[in-house]
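Page 37, top half.
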Amino acid sequence: MAEEPETKMVYCWIVDQGDTLNNYLIRKGCFPGGTMERPKTWNEMESWERELYEETDEKMDLTVFVDSIAYSDFLSQIRLAEVYAVEHKLGIWKESIEEE
C-alpha cells in the first residue's frame, strides 16, 4: 500500500479593497462563520488539546503569517457577516430558521 502524501492546508484571504471573499461568502449565507477560523498553533493550544496529539504521529506544524490583531479584526467581520445572514435568512440560514 502506498503511503499517503502529507496533507497541507492553506487558509487565505482574498481581499478586494476593504472586504474579503471569506466575509462575502459568510454574509451571503454560503457557510457558517466558524468555517473561517484557522486551527490553533501548538503554543495556542490548551494542555489538554496538546495531549490529544502527543500519542499520535501527528504534530501541529502550523505557520501563521498574519498578526493577532488583523486576525481578530477578520473574525469580528466574520461574526457580523454571519449575524447579517442569519437575520436576513440567507443561504444556509433560510431553511434552518423557517423550520424553527
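Page 37, bottom half:
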Amino acid sequence: MNETRTIARFAHSVAFESIPRYAIDKAIDLLIDQLGIQIACATLPWSKQIARMVEALGGREDCTIAYYGFKTSPDNAAFLNTCFGHGFEMDDVHMRAIQHPGCLGVPPALALCEKLHLSGRDLLLGMIVAFELVSRVSLVTGAVLLRRGSNTHPMNGPFGIAAASARLLGLDEEGVLNAIGIAGSHCAAGLREYTQTGGSLKRLHCGIPAQTGVRSALLAREGLTGPPTILEGKFGFCRVFCDITELGPMVQGLGEEYMFVETAFKPYCTVYFIQAPIEAARRIIGKHAPDPKRIREIVVGTCEEGILHAGTIVEPRDIASAQYSTAFSLGLRFVKNGNGMNEYVPRNLADPEVLEVARKVRLEVDAESERVYPVRWMSVVTVVMEDGTRYSERVGALRGTQELPMTREEIKDKFRALVAGRLSRTNAEALLERIEDVERADDVAVIANLLVAR
C-alpha cells in the first residue's frame, strides 16, 4: 500500500550524493547513447513530419530540438526529442521491465534543465529518477500490458517522467505526488496493432509519455491536484489496466538498489525480440555461409511473446513493420548481411531475394526461451538446407547486456557512427567531452547547444 507516495517521497528526497557510482556511470552511458540516436534519427521521414508539426505550433523558445536547433517549450521539446530518440528501434531496453528507460528519461530532463539553467548533476539526478521509476512501474505492469495489446511506454512512462520533472521544478513532496496523480489521467493506450499491420505512429509511443509527464509536473506546479493513490487505488492504474493488486516489487529496495542499470543497449535496429534471432543467424552465416537460395526453411524458437510481438508480419509495407518482422529481418541478414539503418530502407521492402528468405521463416515456442523470459530474451535459430543439412545456434546473451556489457569506448564509438555526416567531427568530439564531464557542468545548456548540426 501507499506505493504512489513512496515513489513521490523517493523522487523528492533522493540526493545526488547518495546515488552509487555504478548508477551514475550507467546514466552517462545512456545519455551518450540516447543523444547519438536523437541526432541520427532526426532526419528520418517520420521524424521530419513530427518536427514540422511541432515547429508550426511555435510557443516559448526555451529548449533546443536536437539536430535542427530551433527552440520550443519544454513539453514539446521532450515530446519531439523523445520521438527522435525512439525513431528507429535502436534505443536501449530494460528486458525485465519491457521498457525503454533512455529515451523516456533523457529528453524531458534535458529540456527542463535547459529551461531552468540547471547543472549537470541536476540533469543526471532527473534522468536517474525517471529511469528508475519508469523501470519499476513497468516491472510490475509491463508484461500484462504487452499481452493485452498495449505498448508499455505510453502507459507506464508518464509516472516516472512526471516525478522526475516535478523534482527538477523544485516541487515539495505533495507537489511530486500530485504530478504523479495527474500523470495517471494522461496515460495513453499505445495500442500494439502496429505489430500486426504496421504504421509509423509507433515512433510516437515514447514521445507521448515524455510530453505528458512534463505537462503533469507543470500542472502540479500551478496547484492542480491528483489522486495520491493513482497506482494502487481501487480505480488506480494497476487495477484498472492490469488487474494487479500486489505492487510490492515496485518499491522494494527503492533508493538502495538501482534496477535501471540492467538496461541493455541494442546491436541491431529492431524490436528486442528479434535481436537474438539476428545474432544467431549472424553466427550461422559466419561459420557456414549458407547460400540463401538453397535454404529450405528457417525455424526460430523463441518465447510466446516474441511470436505475438514480432511473428505476424512477413512482407512489411513500411519500415516500422519491417523492424517488427522476424521473418523479414532474417531475410535482410541472410541476403544483405546487415540489420542497420542502411538495410531497413524502402528499396529493400520489395527485394525479391529478401522476401524469398522471409517466406521460409517459421516461428515456434522454444521451451527454454519461454522459461527465461523476460529476464533473458533468448532464441534458437535452425537453418535447414535443401539437401537436409541443418545449422543451429542458440543465443542467450547479447552484447550490450549486463552479461556482456559494452565499454564506455564502445558506446562512444556507436555515438560517433550515429552522428557521422550529421555533426562535424569536431562538434561530435566536443559533445562527447561535455557529456563525459557532465557532473562538472554548471549549466547543461552547453550540452544542448552542441546537439545542433553544424
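Margin note: The first strand starts at residue 63 and ends at 64.
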